[in-house]
Every structure is written in structure tokens, then in C-alpha cells.
Write a structure and sequence with these properties.
By secondary structure, this protein is of the alpha/beta class. The protein is built from six helices and twelve strands. It binds cytidine-5'-monophosphate. This is Coenzyme A biosynthesis bifunctional protein CoaBC.
């Protein structure tokens, strides 16, 4: 990113993996560290933006100059994000949102019974926040740029790209940042918690995909620069 290229812009970023409670002491979670989302917040701040960071628990410290809003569950993330979206010029959905949550939250700790039946956890779907953000893009803010993330695996690279293109169209966001997880590699080991990332950024407007590899901050700078370019074009 370049200094000042997002001056005067409000950028809303979500980061981290949501936690879906089962009982007062247990939750279903995922391996997201929040590092890529925090790097995006740092890159957007460096580019002069005002940043709201809505975040699930993180493995790294978020930047102190962002407006921080901690949340835990997907439903909390949804409420906070839809509220903050009203004034955002850019929304970056880097959070790993749980697709499902336990249908009920036990008020007491679920007990281990030596002779009873094994407990069964029933899951219900969480709303797709990214799809809602695209649907709710307000009439007075048609210029709002919405960015999604995806970690794709495929039998081969071409397969993964076709799948990612389909996801971009299905979600309707302007940009989709695709983590490249190749075949035969331990995908979750490669993406989650690491300090480096390798992405391909797909555009709904049909412009050529942009590749970026390096530290999560370097990748964030490329994403932020591309966002600034798209905003510039839209306002012409
Ligand atoms: O469909 P998939 O989970 O791969 O899509 C990932 C993108 O969608 C990410 O940007 C993620 O933040 C967002 N997402 C969401 N709400 C969900 C699930 C994913 O906004 N319930």
C-alpha cells in the first residue's frame, strides 16, 4: 500500500475464528490465528484509513489505533458487522466464521456419564454474513467495496481456481482473496497460524487475477493497494 491512498476512507475488517459455545466452558472453534486480518488492519491504517476491527479471539495483538470491537460468536460478529457496515467504504471479511453452531447452549456444564448414552451435538447453519453484506449494500453507498476470503483445495490448481471463481460469483463480493492450498500439502498447516501467505485475488469485474506471496503484511499491502485502485476507478 502507499501512504495516503486510503485517506478519508472508513475500512471495516473482521478477523479471527469465531467460537460457538456448547456450554459455559466449551466451544466449537477453528484454527484461524487472525494474523492476516490484523495485518490488513495495519496495512489499511498505514494507507491512512480509519479502521474498525471486529475480531474474534486473536493469537496476535491488534493495532491500538484501530477501533476495536471484540466478539466471540458468528451471531455477535454478524450484529456488529451489519451495524458498522452502514458507514464503511470498504469491508474486508477476513474472519473465519463458523458455518454451523450448536442448536442449543447448555446452561450447565455438559456432564460425563459413565453409563449413559454418548451425547449428540445438533448443529444449525449460521447466516452467511458476506452474502448479507452484499445484499444490504445500501442505495446511498453503491460504491462500497466488499472483499471476501476463501481457502480452497482442489485436485489441481485449475480445479481450485474454477471453484474459487464460482464462489466469487455466488457470494457477489467485489474481490475474493483465495488462499492457495495445493494438493498433497497439509492445507491447514500451510494457511493457519503461519506468518506467510500465498494468495490469488479474484475480481468480480473480470480484471485479471493478482498473485501475492510473502509475509501476511506484504500480502495485506497488495490487497489494500488493489482496493485503493478499485475505489479510485469507481469514483471516477
Ligand atoms: O463459503 P466460505 O466459508 O468459504 O466463505 C468464506 C468467506 O465468507 C470469508 O470471507 C468469510 O469471512 C465469509 N463468511 C461469512 N459468513 C459465514 C461464513 C463465511 O461471512 N457464515
Amino acid at each position: 500500500a502507499e501512504p495516503g491512498e486510503l485517506a478519508g476512507r472508513h475500512v471495516l475488517i473482521t478477523a479471527g475464528g469465531t467460537r460457538e459455545p456448547l456450554d459455559p466452558v466449551r466451544y466449537l472453534g477453528n484454527k484461524s490465528s487472525g494474523k492476516q486480518g490484523v495485518a490488513l488492519a495495519e496495512a489499511a491504517l498505514a494507507a491512512g484509513a480509519q479502521v474498525t476491527l471486529i475480531h474474534a479471539p486473536l493469537d496476535v495483538a491488534p493495532p491500538a489505533t484501530a477501533r476495536l470491537q471484540p466478539i466471540e460468536t458468528a451471531l455477535e460478529l454478524r450484529a456488529a458487522t451489519l451495524a458498522a457496515a452502514a458507514t464503511a467504504d470498504v469491508i474486508i471479511m477476513a474472519a473465519a466464521v463458523a458455518d454451523f453452531r450448536p442448536a442449543t447452549i447448555s446452561t450447565g456444564k455438559i456432564k460425563k456419564r459413565d453409563h449413559g448414552e454418548d451425547p449428540v451435538i445438533t448443529l444449525v447453519r449460521n447466516p452467511d454474513i458476506l452474502v448479507e453484506l452484499v445484499a444490504h449494500r445500501s442505495a446511498q453507498n453503491q460504491q462500497q467495496l466488499i472483499v471476501g476470503f476463501a481457502a480452497e483445495t482442489g485436485d489441481d490448481e485449475a480445479d481450485a481456481r474454477t471453484y474459487a471463481q464460482a464462489k466469487l460469483r455466488r457470494k457477489g463480493c467485489d474481490l475474493l482473496v483465495v488462499n492457495e492450498v495445493g494438493p498433497g500439502e497439509s492445507g491447514s498447516e500451510r494457511v493457519f497460524g503461519q506468518d506467510n501467505n500465498h494468495v490469488e485475488i479474484l475480481s468480480l469485474d473480470g480484471s485479471s487475477p493478482v498473485q501475492s506471496a510473502g509475509s501476511k503484511r506484504q500480502v495485506a499491502d497488495v490487497v489494500v493497494h488493489l482496493i485503493a485502485q478499485k475505489l479510485g476507478k469507481n469514483s471516477q
